[in-house]
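Worked example 4.2. Below are the chains of a multi-component assembly; read each line carefully before continuing.
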Amino acid sequence: MNDEFLTQFFEAPRAEFADTLYERISQGPQPRFPGTIATKLTFRNAAVAFLFMLLVAACVYVVVEKHWNKVGGIWVGVQSTIKVDNPLLSGEPLVMEIQPECFRIDEAREILRFRFKVPAWAPDGFTFSDEICSHEDLSPASDSAFLDWEGADKNTPLILDLRNLEWFNMATQKYEVLPPSIIGAPVAPGNYEEVQVHGQPAILVRGDWNWEEAPWATGETSVEEYEYKWDKKRALQLYWVDGEVMYHLYTRANVSPEDLIKMAESAQ
Amino acid sequence: MTTRTHTLKGAYTLAEETDWEAAYQEYLPRIYNFFRYRVGDRTLAEDLTATTFEKAWRGRARFRRDLSAFSTWLFTIARNIAIDHFRRREQDIPLEMVGERADPASLEETVQRNHDFARLNALLSQLTVRERELVAFKYGAGLNNREIARLTRLSETNVGVILFRVVEKLRIEMEVKHER
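Applying the procedure described above to all two chains together yields the following structure tokens:
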């Protein structure tokens, strides 16, 4: 391909510009190194590990009567059971060391291209880490991140997931907003209800699947598949949308729905 | 649902382990030229380059040691900055007007090189956003088709085909204008 007419215009940046920029950024604020949350929030890391186990087994994921309901403008995937083949038998690597990287909120606001709010209030006994974390590289291209509030029991924090619904459609060359939906694991029938956050529709989910009870969690290889069961008392979850961001509060601590909503409404 | 295996163990390195000066030396010209081919203006290219490196520097703790991952990460930041720039710009300048603003005739008194680049820029302005982005990655940043495919989520073949067509179109246009 004769493209010399295009390559000939490559030029070095002005030396003055290069030197000034280098001097400026090298004197800038020092970032914090990735946090070591793995050592202090074992529940969350366990939950993430189990999520990946589920993903690893995705090729044999069996969908049982899954359907979608739209509640308060948010799509909810509803499913009565989840059957998963034993990932230990698939030969896939199972447990990954997952080190989230964390930044101060002000640093993250500079990095992420979407604007997000942070609850100013949390139920008694919970302390905000004042960090925002991600299991992926946190960059302007990131569309998700999470924050956490540690409770008296370090294994049952309050976790707030953020998901940017805005994306750049290369086909149309325009930014578009995805319809809000509960991604990831579905919800068992009858365990979600519409509530209000600042007068806007939101979804309260009571319970979660018993992720930790799969037999392969203890290395069991004699079982070929397992059917997860919904446990109404396992967790409390709240989903709401504000602007172009979908928020998801999750906890296994003893927190009331009212407090969870109050926390959501304190976001600023 | 897609399967995604994470092997993050050892993926992150501390900032002290990254030779920042070497990385800066290597990538500054490529990022700068990416923006120059992308937006066609030296001053603006410098501004956007500075923004890219400032953001990268603030988040450098997450850099990976191998330069390939570093390159992808850095160009992803640059790409998003370019997208954001054009998104803001769309509010006051319609995209279809951009080509009309670059008037090669007004640059005849500048040096020949600047004149030629302005002429090329006028042609680049008539490309679609995607076409121009690919040209900027290829000839500004010096990326190969595989690297461009990874950044744009197009297939490597698709990148090659689009670039081939665009380059042929530009070459003919340049020759036609040159003969006038």
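Take a moment to check your reading of the output against the notes. Residues 30-42, 49-64, 92-97 of chain A have pLDDT under 50 and may be disordered. The helical segments of chain A are 4-7, 15-26, 42-56, 105-111, 257-265.
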